[in-house]
Design goal:
Elements (H helix, E strand, L loop, with lengths): L1 H8 L2 E2 L6 E2 L5 E3 L6 E3 L10 H7 L7 H8 L25 H7 L7 H4 L19 E5 L7 H6 L1 H4 L4 E5 L24 E3 L11 E5 L9 E4 L11 E7 L9 E7 L6 H8 L1
Length: 269
């Protein structure tokens, strides 16, 4: 009874999300509008979320949406790590000398800084002269199957889907490999996680049916010592790619934060 009384002693409506707070610990006044808001709705000196949206143009706009809307010269490509990118021109610029001292941008690798990013809606279907591969850390394949099926039109634009950290043991699925089928792709080549728990790691490759015939690909066993902490690797050889005599070799791999980076690089070489 006493607990019930304590819960109703305090009641305040958040002016940002309009939800209710029943504890003074979770409520605070916005630094701009001075109205009560949840602590989670306060964005520091910028004010509450509602104030941010009303006073800061494009507050909820993502970087790729901003570049797609205003930078047509790069054909819908952008790189948020490029200092010259439009998104990095917003607000006060960091002094060049301070950048050199803090290494904010110097620590970014050349590969990362040279990447091109796109909105999913701008990705085009692979043509006959190119091989389009999507590499994705999926963090549980079985839990995301509904997303793959809902966004099938997008994923079928790619010739190959190379997924890592699948956390998937096909033998434990209710309907086996049938639970992992995606329209337009052959049954995936699944490599179970190294860990016996099945959590963390694991690889899978989906091959688009337009890429080759069912008998034109083979899984290559590298016979690696899974105890050497050198990461997880999956190698696939595909023949007669897109009705040609070409053969390609695809390497899908996952390096956990705890794995030995030099050992991973040595294995790749």
């Amino acid at each position: 009874m006493n607990n019930s009384i304590r819960r109703t002693d305090f009641k305040s409506q958040c002016s940002s999300c309009l939800g209710w707070s029943y504890s003074q610990k979770n409520s605070i006044n916005c630094t701009l509008c001075e109205r009560p808001v949840h602590k989670k709705c306060l964005k520091g000196e910028l004010g509450c979320l509602k104030c941010c949206i009303s006073t800061i143009p494009g507050y909820l706009v993502t970087s790729y949406e901003l570049n797609d809307s205003f930078n047509k010269r790069v054909a819908h490509y952008f790189n948020p790590y490029d200092r010259s990118a439009i998104i990095n021109q917003i607000g006060d610029k960091t002094d060049e000398n301070l950048l050199l001292e803090t290494n904010h941008f110097n620590e970014i690798s050349d590969i990362l800084a040279s990447c091109k990013y796109q909105q999913p809606t701008n990705v085009k279907t692979a043509n006959k002269c190119e091989l389009k591969v999507l590499s994705l850390n999926i963090r549980s394949l079985s839990k995301n199957m509904s997303y793959f099926k809902e966004e099938n039109e997008f994923f079928t634009k790619f010739d190959l889907l190379c997924l890592n950290e699948t956390n998937c043991c096909s033998s434990k699925l209710p309907n086996g490999m049938r639970d992992l089928e995606i329209d337009g792709f052959f049954e995936p080549i699944v490599q179970e996680p190294v860990r016996k728990s099945g959590k963390g790691g694991g690889l899978a490759i989906y091959i688009n049916k337009r890429l080759c015939n069912a008998h034109d690909f083979e899984n290559i066993d590298l016979k690696l010592d899974i105890q050497d902490n050198s990461g997880e690797f999956q190698v696939l050889k595909i023949h007669n790619v897109k009705n040609t005599s070409k053969t390609v070799v695809i390497v899908n791999f996952y390096r956990s934060p705890s794995s030995n980076a030099p050992a991973v690089m040595a294995t790749l070489r």
